[in-house]
Backbone:
DNA sequence: CTGAAAGCGCTTACAG
DNA sequence: CTGAAAGCGCTTACAG
């Protein structure tokens, strides 16, 4: 179906144009120092012969390295999600490093704005050839994106998006829609009339956009039939186990004054907290849905305390965001600006096939 | 975190060993014509300095092309599934063609053993450097795989597997487990005691392994609680619309003598046939699950006739199978032998994010 | 503004 | 069995 046909090379162009290969190279890369006349001529022949550069020879000859910086949250012990994007990033880098790409990864603490700013500033100091960033602190990011624009440094957003920026791509999930998926699953699993609790684990330091938008999608799904079903939201601000216990007891405890909850939707990866509660109090027959394939969530999924997990495809997020930068800048390909990853529905039965990466 | 450090090159090795680069090259590629003594010496230094070849320079210098043949079913009009693996294959090829890889794709008719044999024989005649095949006709494949083994041609299986062959990889789905996923979804969606129909669209020309194995997984899931729920299997052998209609009426029609079915599991992509039936007869409140994101299935999913589709990730199957061959033979990497792709659960709410490829 | 030459790291004949 | 030289397609100084 396809073959490596003998391709036209720079020397072919040079010969046809009656110039040297150096000159052809100059026009190909817009390096100036060429008269308009020869430039036009070469350009025309390039077009005519449909010249495609040999990227291998090109990167071999030019010892340039394309320096990519990545700025993502540190996984630490409280934020394990971010291990996966990092792994995806590194795998992508392994695949493309031959093309003279270097990758420097910078970490910030997801609950510490200052660490974000500091690291971002460090990166700006370095002036990389491309940046990949998870801009969870939108305001702090925006100022700096302005600087990057001046420096003409292309930016890819990963996991979080900021609208109306000059980023060349966003790679992540449609959070609102993922709430609708959760709603659909609960809708299938519950009988009509059974009530639902939404649990939001709110972070005091901001970055709650995901959570709110998931709740919004979830509620939107039920809107037409909202009369059927009671849906209560509980926001949890504390980190203290004891407090969480109390709040959950009010929200979903068997003695809860509210109508007995049959479905629980936790809007982020901390669903294991709720699973833990259900286990401790031996509450059965509650359908529990949450996010992300953290070890502890997986354990509860396997043991039937969590029914569904929604995965954000974090590994792919890392992989694709680096590839977006690479394809755009090194391979000179057109890339898709908004790359929404699948909203994967995970159960005990298919979990194993999402862990390979 | 990482950088393109100055690497050790062949000339470094040559210098240290007191030989020419040609000799180093000879031992690196086991091309013989080197005395044991110098060979050992070079080998040792290679090891010591942890020499890693520059794959770019290597493929640029050697004008060798690695010829890959692919043998997959033709998509035609009745078998649209196979468009996706083909697209994945082609995308993978686009990414690696620079490394001197050619791809020739051969098609057979999925319901015609002879076409499979004929095309396979053509490929053997060509003696490619690697083969990627969907061995749905196991017996006919086996003989020929024997020949390939003699010719030392590496083989990757795509979508269908044959156990105990010399294939370097299999890329596909765990079909049995996907049946369990379907079972889980119906189990959540139905009330206890409600009965289920399994519909198998059987092909007379063989290749029904997927179907049977999906049913087996499905039934296995319910085994412990089988008494709760009636599960009836209906096999459909005909292609005639009229006959199908009759059989479905017996199986799931509202006047069916059997207990009224509340859940239907169709074990392959022809679930749209059942959706069509439900629509025509205005049967509501039946949960319908089937396989594969064909256009017609997607339409029924969006219109609520189909509730869940299980996707086999066909695009990825194509992509990964070519990459397996590439990574193993060109990049000399270790590859995973059995690459099971995720068992994706698709609903109306997340379908859009599985269509990008 | 332009060309000739050297070089990127590896491979391939060829001569001995 | 071994080495010297040319070449893969492109880029990079340098000289003019």
Residues:
């Amino acid at each position: 179906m396809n073959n490596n046909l003998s391709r036209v090379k720079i020397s072919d162009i040079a010969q046809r144009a009656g110039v040297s290969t150096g000159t052809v190279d100059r026009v190909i890369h817009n390096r100036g120092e060429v008269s308009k006349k020869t430039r036009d001529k070469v350009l025309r022949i390039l077009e005519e012969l449909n010249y495609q550069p040999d990227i291998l020879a090109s990167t071999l000859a030019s010892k340039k390295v394309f320096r990519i910086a990545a700025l993502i949250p540190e996984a630490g012990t409280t934020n394990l999600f971010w291990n996966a994007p990092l792994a995806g990033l590194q795998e992508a880098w392994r695949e493309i490093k031959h093309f003279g790409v270097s990758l420097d990864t910078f970490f910030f603490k997801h609950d510490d704005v200052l660490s974000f700013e500091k690291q971002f500033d460090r990166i700006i100091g370095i002036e990389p050839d491309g940046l990949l960033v998870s801009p969870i602190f939108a305001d702090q990011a925006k100022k700096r994106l302005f600087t990057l624009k001046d420096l003409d440094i292309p930016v890819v957003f990963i996991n979080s998006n900021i609208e109306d920026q000059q980023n060349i791509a966003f790679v992540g999930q449609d959070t609102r829609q993922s709430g609708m998926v959760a709603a659909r699953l609960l809708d299938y699993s519950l009988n009509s009339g059974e009530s639902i609790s939404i649990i939001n684990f709110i972070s005091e330091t901001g970055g709650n956009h995901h959570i709110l938008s998931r709740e919004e999608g979830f509620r939107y799904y039920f809107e037409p039939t909202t009369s059927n079903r009671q849906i209560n939201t509980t926001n949890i601000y504390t980190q203290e186990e004891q407090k969480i216990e109390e709040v959950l007891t009010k929200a979903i405890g068997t003695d809860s004054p509210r109508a007995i909850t049959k479905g629980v939707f936790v809007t982020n990866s901390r669903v294991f907290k709720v699973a833990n509660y259900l286990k401790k109090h031996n509450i059965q027959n509650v359908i529990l849905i949450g996010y992300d394939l953290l070890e502890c969530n997986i354990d509860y999924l396997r043991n039937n305390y969590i029914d569904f997990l929604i995965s954000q495809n974090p590994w792919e997020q890392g992989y694709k965001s680096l590839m977006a930068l690479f394809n755009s800048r090194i391979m000179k390909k057109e890339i898709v600006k908004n790359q929404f990853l699948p909203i994967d529905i995970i159960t005990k039965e298919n979990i194993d096939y999402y862990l390979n990466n």
Remarks:
- Chain A has a mean pLDDT of 90.
- The first helix of chain A runs from residue 10 to 17.
- Residues 200 and 235 of chain A are 5 Å apart (CA to CA).
